[in-house]
Amino acid sequence: MTHPTHIRRDHTGDRPLLTALQLAERGIPVLPLREGKGPMGNCRACQKNACSGRPNMKTPGQCACPAPCHAWAAATTHPHVLTSAAWAPAWRQAAAVAYHPGGTALTVVDLDNADAIAWARQNLPETRTVATTRGEHWIYRGSMTSRNGVRPGVDIKSTMAYARWLGPGTGTMAPLPDAVRALVAKEPAPARLAPGTSAVAPLLGDGMCPHRSPAYLERGIAMAEQRITNATSAIHNTVYRMFLAVLSAHGRCGCLTETHIGRLFTAAQTRGESLRHCEDAWTNARTQLGM
Prior knowledge:
Layout: H1 16-25, E1 30-33, H2 79-82, H3 88-93, E2 96-99, E3 106-111, H4 114-123, E4 128-131, E5 136-141, E6 147-151, E7 154-157, E8 163-164, E9 174-175, H5 178-181, H6 214-230, H7 235-250, H8 258-270, H9 275-288
Parallel strand pairs: 5-9
Antiparallel strand pairs: 1-2, 2-8, 3-5, 3-7, 4-5, 6-7
Helix pairs in contact: 6-7, 6-8, 7-9
């Protein structure tokens, strides 16, 4: 897969479909944007981007809707989709092209004004930058959860998001730093417990934790994160199996904390799972184990 750093500079926004085909040829999922930088209007079946939350709609370009009507989920690298009759009206109206950063393992830090740019220069490592109408896009290698308004004038666009294609930019693209990931981190919320359950899980056997050291739990969490991250298909099933494995090994001794659970949820959401799907998979795994 080729990142946007390798797109030639002679691609302009004057011919959106041609630009889209050139980007798609290099493995970058693209979609048309109407005037005003928004995606094409949602059809009734996709109001408020509803289709991208269904289990079979997580892969960009695989929605069954007849038109590119659902933002990032419409992004595709398939030229036969981009040039199909169903998409022709959208391209005739298109004012620009967008791409799905998470679909090509990228994260865009969208800096919307001069103050945001000044903050980034003081706090983030240098990377490839692209000038925008009001600010800059800073592009890093690596994907993560998207979120708007992480601080004044700063949005994160990666998985389940789209960014306008404004050219290849300048500078060398750096790996996604922890400082950017930390922008979307939230203080862990209290666990939602079923009526009658305790916040502290019961200990096993004689009341002693069966784990030989904290490293045993850390290895288990890290392995689950890695398997979710590296899964190439059946993401839903992989997430459920990893949740089940972690709960089976660590769910009854009291060592599993909200921080550990948050790490698993973050790994799943980075692969495109919604928070609702994560919560459902966790609840189903607990039910399966009688917790």
